[in-house]
Design a protein that fits this description.
The chain is an alpha+beta fold. The strands form 3 sheets. An 8-stranded mixed sheet has the order 1-5-6-11-10-9-7-8. Helix 1 runs antiparallel to helix 7 and helix 8 packs antiparallel against helix 15. It is globular, with a radius of gyration of 29 Å.
Length: 456
């Protein structure tokens, strides 16, 4: 017996209902992107390896799917290299391309490659799949879709303000209330590291601080000590563990902690500007929250850092994130091109909307009316009517075979088609149509014009 086929772990098939729901989310996001003036672009699903490698840190590099060269790729490997089993020496010779890990680095490549064709500041959006060789779990897949928006060529903090508004606009349009937009600033993290004389341990310090909500203050301090951060430095951090109050109150506490750090105070200044602007403009459904433990993307974020959390009633990781990168295009030779961008996690947003029952019923709309097939002559009459219905925007179809009526009715029920039309000898003679409501069982005989008006 042939083995039942399967798909790789971390990937999924989508049925028609799931595709419709995903399309509802992406179309909602796309509409908001366009309202804010973003232009669509697309990039290849795979890039040259040297475009991607080294851009996401050591851990990110391990999660990049490599593509084997076509042909007899092993011929380029010497016997000594093959016997050494050294991945760093062998991989570049047998794999010159890789599936994209995210949309940000390919976007930076796009900007550099097409810089003479682009008007700056350049606002782009991109909705495409990405791939990561990660361990699959709830809300985390090896193939998933990202929905990104970025602006490059402007250092204005009004861009950060607009991105917060954009997040709020999308989640308002999706009727998803209780979303929290967390914000921090890389300059603040750098300033804290400076104050405790741990500039060379910025990553270690922030990775430990990022775990504060998960493992608690004492465990975080233990991890910092283990990473070589001095006891004196950790004592200076104590006010950080006790931050409380609203955005403004936390800012004032940070000013006291960072009063000797120029870069830290610059970060505070930027956050104050953003918070003041958002307080003036007002968000519709989301709320803005300062989170000094937020430390995502430190390999390329240089200013504001964003992370979006689902409502507290749903156990889910972040459903969006982003930040300011002052020199991302510099990795491809184009210096001094500041940018800021955000991303929406389509798959996680889907899970949240599903759990909260927020998908509109209209999302599931497929065929509205099925014409029952009683034979060749009846089918031809039905097809003419089907064409007329489709011309007016009504989803209609004819059952292809003259099967038993029970089978055709069961087909309509299983596909949740709300109406069926019957055309038999009497209907052919009077040029009429019998419309049946599948939920109530009610039937009525109508002329084509009345049939169209009733279904619309």
């Amino acid at each position: 017996m042939a083995q039942k086929p399967s798909i790789p772990k971390g990937t999924r098939d989508f049925n028609s209902e799931t595709v419709a729901k995903r399309s509802y989310i992406t179309e909602t996001i796309k509409q908001q992107f366009q309202l804010y003036g973003f232009q669509p672009i697309e990039t290849p699903s795979f890039e040259n390896s040297d475009t991607l490698m080294g851009k996401y840190g050591e851990e990110g590099d391990r999660l990049i799917f490599k593509i084997l060269n076509s042909g007899e790729y092993l011929r380029k490997i010497s016997d000594d290299e093959y016997q050494s089993r050294l991945e760093s020496a062998i991989t570049p010779k047998i794999s010159e391309k890789a599936l994209r890990y995210d949309l940000t680095v390919p976007f930076a490549r796009y900007v550099v490659q097409h810089q003479n064709e682009i008007e700056f500041p350049f606002k782009r959006y991109q909705i495409q799949p990405v791939w990561r060789a990660d361990r699959p779990q709830k809300g985390r897949f090896r193939e998933f879709c990202q929905c990104d928006a970025d602006v490059v060529g402007s250092t204005s903090l009004f861009q950060e303000v607009e991105f917060i508004q954009l997040y709020d606009g999308v989640f308002t349009a999706l009727n998803l209330e209780g979303v929290t937009i967390k914000i921090n600033n890389r300059k603040i993290l750098s300033g804290i590291a400076e104050v405790i004389s741990a500039q060379d341990k910025l990553i270690d310090f922030t990775v430990a601080l990022d775990k504060l909500d998960k493992i608690g203050e004492e465990k975080v301090k233990e991890e910092m000590l283990a990473k070589g951060i001095s006891k004196e430095g950790i004592v200076k951090l104590q006010p950080l563990f006790e931050l409380s109050g609203d955005f403004g109150a936390q800012i004032q506490s940070l000013k006291q902690i960072l009063n000797t750090s120029e870069i830290g105070l610059k970060g505070i200044e930027e956050l104050e500007f953003i918070n003041t602007a958002i307080s003036t403009l007002q968000l519709k459904t989301a709320r803005l929250q300062l989170d000094v433990t937020l430390a995502r993307g430190l390999n390329y974020y240089t200013g504001a850092i964003f992370e979006v959390s689902a409502p507290d009633s749903v156990k889910m990781g972040s459903i969006g994130g982003g930040g300011r990168y002052d020199d991302l295009t510099g990795i491809f030779g184009l210096k001094n091109m500041s940018g800021v961008g955000i991303s929406f996690g389509l798959d996680r947003i889907y899970l949240v909307l599903e759990e909260l029952g927020l998908f509109p019923e209209s999302v599931k709309d497929n065929t509205k009316v099925l014409f029952i097939n009683f034979g060749k002559e009846e089918a031809m009459a039905c097809l003419k009517a089907v064409s007329s219905l489709r011309d007016t925007g009504i989803n209609a179809e004819l059952y292809p075979d003259a099967a038993k009526m029970k089978k055709q009715m069961n087909y309509a029920n299983k596909r949740d088609i709300p109406f069926v039309v019957l055309v038999g000898d009497e209907e052919l003679r009077t040029n009429s149509f019998t419309l049946k409501d599948m939920s109530s069982g009610e039937q009525q005989k109508l002329q084509l014009e009345d049939l169209i008006n009733t279904l619309k």
